[in-house]
Design brief:
By secondary structure, the chain is mainly beta. Helices cover 4% and strands 48% of the residues. The strands form twelve sheets. A seven-stranded antiparallel beta sheet has the order 35-34-33-32-31-30-36, with no helix packed on it. It has a six-stranded antiparallel beta sheet with strand order 1-10-3-4-5-6. 51% of the residues are buried.
């Protein structure tokens, strides 16, 4: 590797170009107190930093076409907003680490200079390059062949016919609404064997493969509108991706490209192989011998980059993982982002999980430090936990309310017992090893069920004293503490936290099980994200929070809501859509439901202008579509469950919000991970202009790893999205409505 000198900088940017045919180290910096390394591992980039304060690894696993032997641009920036890595002009990944060159301790850098992997045009700057500067440094991908006329020359045709993977790109427009035709075609004088076409309601890619059988890949949409559009077909890794105007519209298993058909003698653009011309124009048609990345395709279509910042990620504040976003905008411009902090292992409960937040006082532009709001004792899989925060703002009182699930040590949704765990006043019911029951008073005194005093006392952390002697902790896993005396019920608890100063300080947890849970329930917990406050109709002012629960059979679930008409002082649970539902000839109820196909899990709630509520639900119904139902009484009862044909469902948390545009028209926005690949991913945001009846506007936000998310409408009028890459962290992106065109 080549060695280059580097200034000792606390923040700044590294800028370079690289080419790789295989895994290997591109840049490595070494010093007495730390190191940095930018490498390719398993065909995707990895950036590692070891500093005195922390270690960080950014695995850019969605960028899996980088070892293609082509030149790519890279920019690494580190400053107050954390670490950002841009490849080919767009953000590949970001992290919370603010150490640059291992806090200035890097003394020299080594740059790759080998046949299989090489770096060139390296430079560094003492400033953090903004997104548009990183984009300006990126080179547009160069095609293998480009169309200078409507037909490739014979030499280029032969070259193209040998490609088994790659990219087709073209710009087109039709002459009028609903017209169409062939954008690109390949074949011979008697047969057409490959075609890219536009019609009134779709773009199709068609290949006549082995045995003369046609195969079809389609993206539904209205692009026959008389406007210019870019279309790209990427064939690689066992699938075909169809991009329109820089955004992926379809990812369809089954790969086919030019070499999959025999006898290609001509490749045409703007017409088919027999001379039938497109009702419009095709330009800039080109063919690439490599599959272009999402960033490269966005560069071809001149898509402006979005601004993203890591808020919680692996290694931040000494935690292995953060998951489950909640995001709430307040009228003052304060934005509160909540997350599960998973200290030692990344799993759901049973696990040691804390509830943490970060606050922004300027509408999401800058963020304050992490604040631990709620933490229970224990470690790892034996630890007590809180999980799945759901937040709402009460405009009448200015209070922020968070509902969250709590489990004692060693307990989670898979193994929690049936029961409420508190008495009718919300006092925790405690048990000793002999099976005797006690009640925990607000002042920490422990009494018998009959009201008699005992020698036990419990502090606000759950620590028990018997007289002067330590006697365990009520929240710990059974058997962990040799001094164990009293434990809470081994079930799920729904607890409430409140803040009257916009998230600066928080109340102690308040138990709600006695108000909303039944003894026949095993689990009852939130659908994470946000609730709503009703604005219209007779229930205006009501707070609505989505929940779901299990009954006699703990593996099957039913969605519902809990609601409060007094600012969160008291709560009630509405019926579930599964109560009285007729499914496959049987009448269901949420207590005895025993069908995974009929189960409804995490949900999200929207209020329509007439006060009707729309619930959109995670499920495992064979339709593979999001479940939908409606309520006309503020969530107390629900209509039958339907499955919306326009919204794919892969069994992942959904989220939605309602807001008004500048003209006062109501817009609904829905987000979910919409495709198994085979990991959960392909995050898509959808808009509805008819109160959720249809969702005709869709944008792929992240075509790779993407799981849970939470939306909010920012004071700027833009959307805020807090989303997760399942194992690496939570990221905040601001999205202008113009992004949807």
């Amino acid at each position: 590797m080549l060695k280059t000198a580097i200034d000792s900088l606390k923040q700044g940017s590294l800028i370079f170009e690289f080419r790789a045919f295989s895994d290997g180290t591109l840049i490595e910096g070494r010093g007495r107190e730390g190191s940095i390394r930018f490498a390719i591992k398993d065909d995707f980039p990895v950036y590692e930093i070891v500093a005195s304060s922390r270690e960080m690894t950014l695995e850019m696993e969605d960028l899996n076409t980088i070892t293609d032997g082509k030149w790519h641009s890279a920019v690494i920036t580190v400053g107050e907003r954390g670490t950002h890595v841009y490849v080919d002009g767009y953000l590949a990944f970001c992290g919370t680490a603010t150490e640059f060159l291992a806090e200035g301790s890097i003394e020299e850098l080594f740059l790759a200079d080998e046949t299989a992997i090489v770096v060139r045009n390296f430079s560094s700057e003492a400033r953090v390059l903004p997104e548009m500067d990183a984009l300006a440094l990126a080179k547009t991908a160069s095609p293998l062949v480009a169309f200078a006329a409507n037909r490739l020359c014979d030499y280029d045709t032969q070259t193209v016919s040998e490609l088994g993977s790659g990219t087709i790109f073209a710009r087109f427009r039709v002459r009028g609404v609903g017209q169409g035709g062939t954008i690109l075609a390949a074949g011979n004088e008697t047969e057409e064997k490959l075609a890219l076409r536009i019609s009134a309601d779709e773009i199709s890619y068609e290949v006549r493969g082995r045995g003369g059988k046609w195969r079809f890949w389609r993206a539904q949409g209205d692009w026959a509108d008389g406007n210019w559009h870019d279309v790209a077909v990427v064939a690689a890794n066992g699938a075909v991706d169809i991009y329109v105007d820089g955004f992926r519209e379809a990812h369809i298993p089954g790969q086919a490209f030019f070499s999959d058909v025999a006898g290609i003698e001509k490749v045409m653009t703007g017409q088919d192989c027999f001379g039938a011309r497109l009702f419009g124009e095709a330009s800039k048609a080109s063919i690439f011998d490599v599959p272009l990345s999402d960033a490269q395709l966005k560069r071809l279509s001149s898509i402006s980059p979005l601004r993203t910042m890591a808020l919680f990620d692996r290694g931040y504040e000494d935690s292995i993982s953060y998951r489950i976003p909640s995001l709430l905008s307040l009228p003052s411009g304060v934005v509160i982002a909540g997350a599960d902090q998973r200290e030692e292992i990344a799993n759901d409960s049973p696990n040691k999980i804390n509830f943490v937040i970060r606050r922004s006082a300027d509408g999401g532009k800058t963020w304050g430090p992490l604040k631990r709001v709620l933490k229970y004792p224990g470690r790892g899989r034996d630890g007590a936990s809180v999980i799945d925060s759901c937040a709402v703002y009460d405009s009448r009182t200015g209070r922020v309310i968070v509902l969250i699930d709590h489990f004692p040590g060693g307990i989670g949704q898979p193994n929690n017992e049936h029961g409420v765990g508190v008495d009718e006043q919300g006092r925790l019911v405690l048990h000793n090893d002999e099976g005797e029951s006690f009640l925990l008073q607000k002042d920490g005194e422990v009494i018998t069920i009959a009201g008699e005093s005992t020698p036990y006392k419990v502090d606000d952390k759950g620590n028990v004293c018997k007289g002067e002697r330590p006697a365990g902790n009520i929240y710990l896993k059974d058997g962990v503490d040799p001094d164990q005396s009293l434990l809470t019920a081994r079930t799920s608890f729904l607890v409430m936290l409140t803040s009257d100063d916009e998230g600066e300080t928080w109340s102690e947890p308040i138990h709600l099980n006695h108000q909303v849970k039944e003894e026949w329930m095993a689990f009852l917990g939130t659908s994470p994200g946000t609730g709503i406050q009703l604005k219209n109709g007779s229930k205006a002012g009501r707070l609505i929070m989505p929940v779901y629960y299990s009954g006699d059979y703990p593996k099957f679930f039913s969605a519902a809501v809990v609601f409060s008409d007094d600012g969160g002082n008291t709560w009630r649970r509405g019926e579930s859509p599964n109560d009285g539902r007729v499914f496959n000839g049987r009448t269901l109820d949420s207590r005895s439901i025993d069908s995974e196909a009929a189960s409804t899990h995490e949900s999200t709630i929207i209020e329509r202008e007439d006060g009707t509520l729309l619930m959109l639900m995670r499920n495992q119904h064979p339709s593979g579509r999001v479940g939908v139902c409606r309520s006309i009484d503020g969530g107390e009862t629900w209509s039958d469950v339907e499955y919306h044909e326009q919204i794919p469902e892969i069994f992942s948390q959904p989220h939605s919000i309602s807001f008004e545009d500048e003209s006062g028209k109501q817009i609904l926005c829905f987000a979910n991970a919409s495709q198994m690949m085979p990991y959960r991913g392909n995050g898509v945001l959808r808009l509805s202009l008819d109160e959720g009846e249809t969702w005709p506007i869709a944008r792929t936000f992240n075509p790779g790893h993407y799981v849970y998310q939470c939306l909010t409408h920012l004071p700027t009028g833009n959307l805020g999205l807090l989303w997760e890459n399942e194992w690496q962290g939570l990221y905040f992106t601001e999205i202008p409505l113009s992004w949807f065109e």
